[in-house]
Write a structure and sequence with these properties.
The structure holds two protein chains of two kinds.
Chain A: H1 2-17, H2 23-41, H3 46-80, H4 82-87, H5 93-127, H6 135-159, H7 164-179, H8 181-191, H9 194-206, H10 216-220, H11 227-253
Chain B: H1 2-9, E1 18-29, E2 35-47, E3 52-56, H2 63-70, E4 78-83, E5 86-87, E6 97-100, H3 112-121, H4 127-140, H5 156-168, E7 174-178, H6 186-201, E8 205-210, H7 213-219, E9 222-227, E10 230-235, H8 237-240, E11 245-253, H9 260-266, E12 268-270, E13 273-278, H10 283-292, E14 296-304, H11 307-321, E15 325-329
Parallel strand pairs in B: 3-8, 3-9, 6-7, 7-8
Antiparallel strand pairs in B: 1-2, 1-4, 2-15, 4-5, 9-10, 11-13, 11-14, 12-13
Classes of the chains: A mainly alpha, B alpha/beta.
Bound molecules: adenosine-5'-diphosphate (ADP) and magnesium ion.
Chain lengths: 258, 330
């Protein structure tokens, strides 16, 4: 466990040195521009616009990072053969995987926290102050983070047995499918075909159900998010990540390194 | 501290340092992974404790394949391997093993200091000990002034040195080096040789692979010759790669004394100088003759088989060209 922590810390350091956090500059500019703009054009809805825009940007930037960096976590080390010397240390392969996962999760957490701070700044600019009901926005950010963790675990799982390109496609595909999980679930009902219904149901339960994680609209309108949903999503993300990482470990532990 | 670590690891103190039994590795290739290629065929050998063992063979012989199996980077198709009496799948034992990969590459966003410090953490050293070890290792491999430079700016030879440093950082019992001299200039090779000899003096076991006969001869207690995935022989370098002399070569400048003509006839002219090859038994006779002729002897050296000659002789020209054995395709 301690060794996974060592790997995680180095993964974070790599992201920082590779200037991954520069995306924050882009986000900051976007928020400033949005804050200035909505202040001029809208009457009364600027608070909704700024939160919707901010959370969407936080989610999109996070997903892009989770997919692209996530897929490279293991495959880059195999391709460059930096893994050889590392695995010759007393590090088990599952510790390596867990460390890689935790390192990117930490990177995303720091990145997301910074963006959330930026969003809070923009809100403060627009509203003139921050209020208690703005906490809903914080919960939305937390859900985005949970979603990112699931995406990273999937990217890691795929990259353990297939090429980076295919891993990227699979992860991105699963993410999109996961966003539309309820619609997929509804396919069978709509068509009234029992067989199709069973397949669609089975498939949709395999998918990460990201629908529950999207509370951007609720947060934009400052509707309180039920504590039950917070608990449920937290548990769901933890179980999903655990299953994906276990699968990744099982595959990776048997893998011959080129 | 070190002693405690050893005990905690519970490695038996007797028996060979490295032993393999029937170790075999097939690689599947081709689009459908239907082609099988045997890169290592039934390797059974032992490396004794405290021994410097050279793993000698041409390119594609199966040296790296063997070493990767020993390090648990790949898994055998058949057979077993043990290090210090424990199966190679036992990663905890890596506290006692140092490994230099072939053409090593490391995290290029780190400096050499940071990389070594990172690796040292896995062995559980505290901050002060890590700093001390990193400094000592960098000095040992001649990188003390380059420690703060990012590895992306390193040359191949410098990376090789960092690789050696990380392999011996934790003072392991068994050191496995894959082509440790490659990519190094003569000075670097010499330094690596010194490090290997130092490890030997400290009672460590060293297994290193090479395709260069001279390196093996100079350092090894024993060598194992591998070609085409098969072990072809094990023994002292002298027995194996017969320093079977093919005679002696004398380089000289001719004089004008009596009998000069006779010897010049047998010699080959190279500019001002002449070269003559004689059987070992006739060496003194030839030298006498040259002295009588007033020739100036420049050098006398043993004519030796090259490694290529040796491999050709050993496994036949046919097999030397195909580096691994095909074992059936579907
Ligand atoms: N990952 C791999 N996939 C397929 N063939 C391989 C792989 N690695 C090595 N080989 C083959 O195995 C044989 C032995 O290679 P290797 O052990 O690297 O030789 P060397 O003695 O030069 O280190 C070669 O013919 C090589 O092509
Ligand atoms: Mg090799």
């Amino acid at each position: 466990m301690k060794r996974a922590g060592i790997v995680a810390w180095n993964t974070f350091r790599e992201a920082v040195r590779d200037r991954v956090l520069y995306n924050l500059v882009f986000f900051a500019l976007l928020m400033i521009a949005a804050a200035l703009l909505v202040g001029q054009i809208s009457i009364g809805i600027e608070q909704i616009v700024i939160v919707t825009l901010g959370l969407s940007a936080i989610s999109l930037i996070g997903i892009l990072m989770a997919v692209f960096i996530g897929v490279g976590l293991v495959s880059k080390e195999m391709e460059k053969r930096t893994l050889y010397a590392l695995l010759a240390k007393p590090v088990r392969r599952w510790e390596f995987l867990l460390g890689k996962f935790a390192g990117l999760a930490l990177t995303l957490a720091v990145n997301t926290a910074a963006m959330a701070t930026g969003l809070a700044g923009a809100m403060w600019l627009v509203q003139g102050s921050l209020r208690a009901e703005d906490a809903a926005v914080l919960v939305a950010v937390y859900f985005i983070l949970l979603k990112l963790a699931i995406v990273v675990s999937l990217a890691l799982l795929f990259s353990c047995f297939t090429t980076p390109l295919l891993s990227t496609l699979f992860t991105a595909g699963l993410y999109v499918a996961g966003v539309f999980a309820p619609e997929i679930r509804a396919i069978g009902k709509v068509t009234g075909n029992a067989a199709l219904d069973a397949v669609a149901m089975g498939f949709s339960y395999l998918l990460p159900n990201f629908d529950n994680f999207n509370v951007i609209a609720a947060a934009a309108h400052r509707r309180a998010i039920p504590g039950m949903l917070v608990a449920q999503n937290t548990l769901y993300a933890a179980v999903y990540c655990a299953i994906a990482l276990t699968g990744a470990t099982m595959i990776f532990s048997r893998r011959n390194l080129k | 501290m070190t002693a405690a670590r050893r005990n905690a690891n519970n490695t038996p103190m007797t028996g060979p340092a490295i032993e393999t039994e029937g170790l075999t590795k097939d690689y599947t290739t081709g689009f459908w992974l239907a082609k099988k290629k045997r890169s290592l065929d039934n390797l059974t050998m032992q490396v004794e404790r405290g021994e410097v063992f050279g793993f000698l063979g041409p390119n594609g012989a199966g040296k790296t394949t063997t070493i990767k199996l020993l390090m648990g980077l790949t898994f055998p198709s058949a057979g077993t391997a043990r290090i210090l009496g424990r199966p190679v799948s036992d990663v905890g034992m890596h506290n006692e093993i140092g490994y230099l990969p072939e053409q090593p590459y490391f995290y290029d966003y780190l400096t050499a200091c940071e990389l070594l410090d990172y690796f040292a953490r896995f062995h559980g050293y505290g901050a002060a000990e890590r700093r001390e070890r990193v400094e000592r290792m960098l000095k040992k491999v001649g990188l003390e002034t380059a420690g703060k430079i990012q590895l992306r700016k390193y040359s191949k030879g410098m990376l090789q040195r960092v690789g050696v440093a990380q392999a011996i950082l934790h003072d392991p019992q068994v050191v496995i080096l894959d082509e440790p001299m490659s990519g190094l200039d003569p000075l670097g090779r010499r330094e690596v040789r010194d490090i290997i000899l130092e490890l030997k003096r400290a009672g460590r076991t060293v297994l290193f692979s090479t395709h260069i006969l001279g390196d093996a001869e100079m350092l090894c207690d024993r060598v194992g010759v591998i070609a085409g995935g098969k072990l072809r022989g094990v023994g002292a370098p002298k027995e194996i790669v017969g320093v079977q002399s093919h005679g002696m070569e004398i380089l000289f400048e001719p004089g004008s004394g009596a009998g000069a003509a006779g010897i010049l006839e047998k010699a080959v002219r190279m500019g001002e100088r002449y070269r003559i090859e004689v059987a070992e038994g006739e060496l003194y006779g030839a030298i006498e003759q040259l002295r009588a002729a007033g020739a100036k002897i420049l050098s006398v050296v043993q004519v030796r088989q090259t490694l290529e000659d040796y491999f050709l002789e050993l496994i036949g020209a046919e097999q030397a060209r195909t580096s691994a054995v095909e074992v059936g395709e579907k």
